[in-house]
User: Fold this.
Amino acid sequence: MSRLGTETAFEVLNRARALEKQGKEIVHLEIGEPDFDTPANVVEAGIDALHKGWTHYGPAAGLPDLRQAIADYVSRTRKIPVSSDEVVVVPGGKPIIFFTMLALIEAGDEVIYPNPGFPIYESMINYSLGKAVPIPLREDRDFSVDVKELASLINDQTKLIILNSPHNPTGGVLTKKDILEIAEAIGDRNILILSDEIYSRLIYDGDHFSIMSVPGFKERTILLDGFSKTYAMTGWRMGYGVMRSDLAVHIARLSTNSTSCTASFTQVAGIEALRGDQSSVDKMSAEFQRRRDVFVTGLNKIKGFSCRVPKGAFYAFPNITKTGWPSKKLADALLEEAGVACLSGTAFGDHGEGYLRFSVANSLENLNLALKKIEAWVSSNL
Ligand SMILES: Cc1ncc(COP(=O)(O)O)c(C=O)c1O
Assistant:
């Protein structure tokens, strides 16, 4: 257990709730989940499924109709032929990370992962006894991958490379050109790629492009996507992996050994999410963009803060080095003294030092309140 990490967001949320119990006003910008309701058509499909008796075990890899809906969706959005036996449905995007590591990584295998990055990557690499090899994502490259640096990290022990675009926590997006260069650096080596595309529908500048769409890479890519962010379904727990069918069998076996299956009525609602009206996704995305613009503009007016405009996801990742404060200390002070809950960049790895992460999945009113609170704190403390 000592090798297993965690996700600081939940710890900060608990501390923020404890402060609220003491009567303090806290603006919550720590948790990465849409503040919107699950679209009504999806909720209705879930309720209907419950009434119709979708309350029993289902196949470990997912209901055939949902696997087919996902295969159609991924074929359409990534412009590659995908069949339903290449899809595994799991309770959230996270189990795909967990199962991929358990299935593929043996002691000493090297895994290249983005740093700063979603903390579960490093945690699971270490837990699987792999060697965690960070690829730093730097602000001066707009938090995209330095392909030369990536090439220098690849060796005969490299088993897996993790990509995440749009990226948590920086909001960086890998362009088609970036992906093609990364693919070229990997070449025809026998290396697998875990491509975490859970924010693929939340892009504000440019288009999403998957390494799975590059000829020769579909066979080596495990694509992670899901319903949590796109359809505001974090609590339903449903995500999926798309991979070669011979790999899918193993990932499904890990499901059999752990969760048995994803809740059946949830999966029926998932079919409606993918096949039904998509207007709520567009609305949510437009609203995140509006909030991003307001919040980032506001942050850039605060002394010591400078923030690039994130191109995707719903996070702002300002550079705070000019405040002279280390990230964790500043995040703690903002929570306890300013009443704004955010995360230290170091919650996403060592290369997150010098940054804070704010989620803009909160109302414009609260985002403006947070800006005011930070500004007031900065003017009396810096
Ligand atoms: C990059 C990334 N991948 C995966 C996940 C996991 O998503 P889920 O809630 O569907 O397990 C998250 C959630 O925050 C994330 O930010």
